[in-house]
Amino acid sequence: MQAQAPGQEQKFKPGRVSPKVRVLLVEDEVIFARAVAKRLQQAGYDCEHAATLEDGRELVRQMAPDLVLLDMRLPDGNGLDLLPELVSKGIAVISMTAYGEVTDAVYAMKLGATDYLKKPVDLEELLLAVEKAQTATQLKHHLDYSRQRNMHASEGVELLGDSPAVSSVRAQIERFAQLVSLSDAIPPTVLIQGETGTGKDVAARLLHLSCANSDRPFVHVDCASLPAELIESELFGHEKGAFTSAQASRYGLIEAAEDGTLFLDEIGELPLPLQAKLLNVLERRRVRRLGSTKEHPVQARFVAATNRDLHQMVLEGRFRSDLFYRLNVLTMHMPPLRERGDDILLLAKHFATQTERRYGLQPRPFSIEASHMIRDYQWPGNVRELKHQVSRAVLLSRESQIMSHDLALPGSLQAAPPMVTPEPGVTLESAEKVLIENALRQSNNNVSEAARQLGITRMAMRYRMERHGLKL
Ligand SMILES: Nc1ncnc2c1ncn2[C@@H]1O[C@H](COP(=O)(O)OP(=O)(O)OP(=O)(O)O)[C@@H](O)[C@H]1O
């Protein structure tokens, strides 16, 4: 059978090589979790279980799930806190809420969950929801790839900011675009470095749009989220029978990029043997599909991005030095958000307006205190973190201004009085009172937020406050 032509969407279809769908269950009720995992495994899913948000986050990194079943009330926080991260990675999420926590389900859907289930959950109903979400995600990925081709990665690409650091990035993108577009030359590779969430993906897309052939494909390969055993066949393609599940020949993404751009995101995660193969492609401009003896010319320009210190990885023997030197020709550095001065507020206002428009909400300004907090916070997750926190604050805020406590930044919690540890001999009852008082102080007397911090419903919080005689 012949390989399909690059224009055919089918060749990108997820799941063709790995039939097992990976499901992550984030749930602290162990007996229920075991029953769900068993039922999903029986139905042919790969299922992993995490009992806390933190373990869930770690497993997302390790197993790159296709779908997450997310409980809302977890020992170390609310499932809503993990949800935006999952949605931004294109992972389907089914939220699971207990009876009486309807608002959580509503927020979860607003934040991009695919579906929600009410507890107690019937296992067959859960299985149906998983199947439905999986079909929807496959369709979405399918469309995403088609969209990448058809819209040429141009939609919604904005590198906002007036700071000198961002202006300099913009100028560099223009300059690099000219250099990689020189007609007769083999285009030099562009390496985009920067902390997570600084806009490396945005910069890569803008670069593509500024190049000659910007109407050609922009193919994004996330080396961190593709399982190691899949990356090779995804990148290089394969012939029918090259390995057990290769039932048809298939173009790899390098060929699919045609004479457009292949964007290798998180290149630091590429396994060492594949680094050698990639170097070979970059040097010889030829690619050979798995199981084939024939080589095909490579026309694409290569853009790579990383938030790792590749030089350090070379010193530690985790990244090939020859590939590093090959990549490190035209290098651009995305500045961290904390170094962009007033751009932070400009971006915050932009994301607030975006969320208000998306959900048809009244425009509201940030309070002076909230603006100061946004400006002073260090933003370790950079623009992505800002975007999520602002969207979340806009959706959750009930007041005429977006207040600092709506932002729920770790800094604001640090600024709150330290937690009081009960003395020995203190009763459970009085310890509970102390915890409630602390949570209220940390959330500036916002009962919903305090309830969220303690992992209980607003109603339960009100009831306990009344029992302890706590008034606002
Ligand atoms: N200057 C900017 N103006 C507007 N939006 C931005 C800007 N920079 C980043 N964003 C937005 O922030 C989010 C994160 O950006 P992006 O994915 O490009 O970061 P990244 O550096 O590639 O992250 P990672 O290292 O985690 O892959 C995206 O939603 C992007 O649209």
From TrEMBL:
Pfam families: AAA_lid_14 (PF25601), HTH_8 (PF02954), Response_reg (PF00072), Sigma54_activat (PF00158)
Coiled coil: none
Modified residues (4-aspartylphosphate): 71
Keyword Acyltransferase assigned: no
Domain Response regulatory as annotated: residue spans: 22-134
Keyword vocabulary terms for this entry: ATP-binding, Nucleotide-binding, Phosphoprotein, Transcription, Transcription regulation
Keyword DNA repair in annotation: no
Start and end residues of each Sigma-54 factor interaction domain: 159-395
InterPro entries, per the entry: AAA+_ATPase, AAA_lid_NorR, CheY-like_superfamily, Homeodomain-like_sf, HTH_Fis, P-loop_NTPase, Sig_transdc_resp-reg_receiver, Sigma_54_int
Name of the featured protein: Sigma-54-dependent transcriptional regulator
